[in-house]
């Protein structure tokens, strides 16, 4: 709380380091307690401090220690930590003793007591250093040297302290030289013993976490408990606990991080930070509280001299030692850095705890030591702590901002490491790189495979960086596109769909809807763009539906409480639930409408089976509801056909429908006639259905963009055909029929060339062959929409069956092959009205399927062009009087058998494979070069149509099929 | 040293009371010592000659030339030359690839092939002479302020690293070249797709002109926050 409040007072915290403010608050509290005489406790006992307060801070420091940096500068750090501390201890102790000899302190200053005091006062305190240095963000090298020193000098301090304490107890007279040797020996033992214990525990932690993947919850516990055990273990053997827990943290980090889950990692991180900062807070506050008592023995000279000696010898020590270190360092410590290092030598709670440990009975001066220690701490923390920040700024010390390494930095730096290691080897020099390289090899070869669950090659850091960056990219992408998706789904597509749909239903006539249509857009880009978004949205919704709606809603509540299991999905489920409900509502509406529309019509198939959804989504459909009108519009239609050289097909869209221009370029023109023919009928019905069910069908149908956006779709060629329907009802009827055919066609195409989707999405592969024509017929038209097809929906019943129109008036569809890859792709399909029929030069196009479907297929000009383009072009025309073209085509019997079969067939496909084209690709390219003017012309026509919306009803279906191999083309030709 | 010893002997002898006898013996011992030390000196000289056989070949002007060209001090040059000859098992004054790869640690360095190749960049006959050897090493001299830095400026260091990526010397790191390096460094435990996606990600990240390659400028830019001077320097002993 205090901490927080300090941060809330920005000015204060700008001037004072946190530690100062905490001490200040502690003093206030202490004064309060003292004045009320209520509490007479010594809050900060050495035991509390060393057993509970210190370990979290040190563990935090060790665990988040930048290893590389630490070991790169280990030599310097050790020099300062060991030699520097000893130097400070001796000089401070001796100086104070010398001053004591002059009698200025007015009391006896035994040498050993002074040295003892020197030992505890000379150590730089990790807590204070952390507290201050974390706020000033100095250069990392500077930071690591000071901080590393403060961590590692613990061993020295503790050893020296105990040594002098023991000497003091023994008394100077009994000391022999062996005791000093023993002291030196004990330092080695304490330091290395602590380090070894820490490292061993670190490895043990790594090993344990290797097996915790079943119980993620306890992973953090192991980290903390085992680190603490290392600390206790070291203390137990009178080793340096601080060293032990530091190295435990340093060691375990490498292996634990690779084993634990991401959430555990987060938990550990925050828990550790929380514990250490709580400890730090408490320590500084208790320091303040402990200040206020009645036991102070103040000796001005002693305090002053101690402070002076501490500062002076610190500076001298740093300068001497850094001069030594610079002889061996690549990066020379500069004067400014030396200054910061000496100035950053803060004393802190460790000294305080140690001084409290002194037994007053042995050392008579203990109360004065306590007072002096507090004074020194205050001096360093307040004076130095406050001034170091401005000083760093004034002296222009290099500061760093924290950031994550980029991929390039990771890789190239790693590269440089190897390079330097290699160069060192060539030079026969055993430097840092050499040693690190050796350790890494050893680590990778023996330790990591043993400690890690998923041993991931030699460069985990590169992978880690990569996955982090990839994750970030993904999140950014989602954030960028989320709005788009949301908007589309919410505002445009869904509402538009419903509105249109409702209109259509109410009026019962397509004309009404046409009036509403505000958009008659032929612009290819625009068309692509809008539909794609809608398509995506719809697909998404459909996906959700498939995932959630069709299954009985399950409550995601945990049935039993488990301490060791966390249900990570809880959050996600809630979200899903919400969407789920919304979608449910939407779907309910849809269904409702659909039923309404269906009523009064004979419906053979209410049944939607799952496999249908698995049908290729490649086909894109464009539908117009009004066939009759289309027929009337002959004039306009021909124009369009003329334009077909242009890329886009134009379709009049009933109100609310947007035109879709398939800007498809066929990647592969070689599609078999059979497939195309088969596809044609199927597509028409789909469209019709789609139109019915969703007034917005066109939008949905415009799949090209989708195809582009979805790589797996690209392989297919897309056929667009535009059927015209006179009446919605009729459409619906037809749709059922069409569906059947469509599905079958799609299937065929699929079988011939497994779609990319299938290859990409394993779950789609199931029923490719199994889904017969019958099954397909069962699907609702919209279900067979490509976008939806991208997902398999488990829902069994979306739509009821649809009646077939007995006499479809006329449908003129043009199937155009689209190549999803390029907008301007070669073959293009243009909607053609009855004119198309008149013009139909099917024969010219030399498509073989034509003969069968002959009368209906007719956009001659277009077909010619398309053929000339080489792309397989299919024109689907639906004739009013037309009989099922499927029969003509070599459709599988199963399809034919479909109940709706005979009547359904309004549309026939013309394939204009032209020369069929193996040269298709080149031709496509030619087609790309088709003049814009043609397209523009198409657009104009379309606009003209828009002005007379009622007149024109066209359906456009775009079928995409993959015709990947020329061989398939040949076979198809043969079939036809 | 010799003189010290002899004086010590003499003083030792002086302290002895039996003057004459001891004096003579001392003198004898002195001469003996002198002789032995002389022989020792000559022995060491001989060894020096043998060990530095090639160092004798390294004439003053050669050292001066190398110093001029690479910025190494004569001491460093001598030291590196002894290393050079130590590597040169055939005593032919040049190093072959095998000579390099005979270094055990280098042989298992994942990038050993590239590192060694870097030494052979200038040679045409697959041998590296001492001057070429030194030129390559000069890239790794630490940068000293107030002194001229030949071959070891930041850009030189970067160029050196860059050229190790750029196998085909077209001035750009292609995806395949980066992938090759990744292969060497990361090893076999990683799937090909992962590696290639890493490579692609890396290129995209650094690629500013969208040519799917990393040019040197892009390379330098990507590393502009890296302490290259530090990372690509070695403390050469004097």
Your description of this structure?
Chain A: Residues 590-599 have a biased composition (Basic residues). The complex is a heterodimer of chains A (976) and B (238). Chain A is mainly α and 976 residues long. Helices cover 64% and strands 3% of the residues of chain A. In chain A, helix 6 runs antiparallel to helix 14 (300-328), helix 9 packs antiparallel against helix 12 (241-259) and helix 10 (177-210) packs antiparallel against helix 11. Chain B has 238 residues and is mainly alpha-helical. Chain B has one domain: Recoverin, domain 1, CATH 1.10.238. Chain B contains 14 helices and 4 strands. Chain B has helices at residues 2-15, 19-51, 53-57, 60-70, 74-87, 97-101, 104-107, 112-119, 130-138, 154-165, 175-186, 192-206, 216-222, 228-231, and strands spanning 94-95, 128-129, 172-173, 214-215. In chain B, the strands form 2 sheets. A two-stranded antiparallel sheet of chain B has the order 1-2. In chain B, helix 1 runs antiparallel to helix 2 (19-51) and helix 8 crosses helix 10. The two termini of chain B are 24 Å apart. The model of chain B is unreliable at 1-19 and 31-55 (pLDDT under 50). Classes of the chains: A mainly alpha (976), B mainly alpha (238). At the A-B interface, helix 18, helix 19 and helix 20 of A face helix 5, helix 8, helix 10, helix 11 and helix 12 of B.
Descriptive key words:
heterodimer, A: 976 residues, mainly alpha, four-stranded antiparallel β-sheet, two-stranded antiparallel sheet, 43 helices, 64% helix, 3% strand, disordered C terminus, B: 238 residues, Recoverin, domain 1, 14 helices, disordered N terminus, nucleus (chain B), metal-binding (chain B), cell membrane (chain B), protein transport (chain B)
Number of helices of chain A: 43
Average per-residue pLDDT of chain B, rounded, comes to 72
Main sheet of chain A: which strands, in order across? Answer: 1-6-2-3
How many domain units of chain B?
1
Q: Which word captures the global form of chain A?
A: globular
Which percent band covers the strand fraction of chain B?
Answer: under 5%
Helix content of chain B: 55-70%
The chain-level structural class of chain B is mainly alpha
**Which pair of chains has the greatest number of interface residues, and how are they split between the two chains?**
A-B, 43 and 51 residues
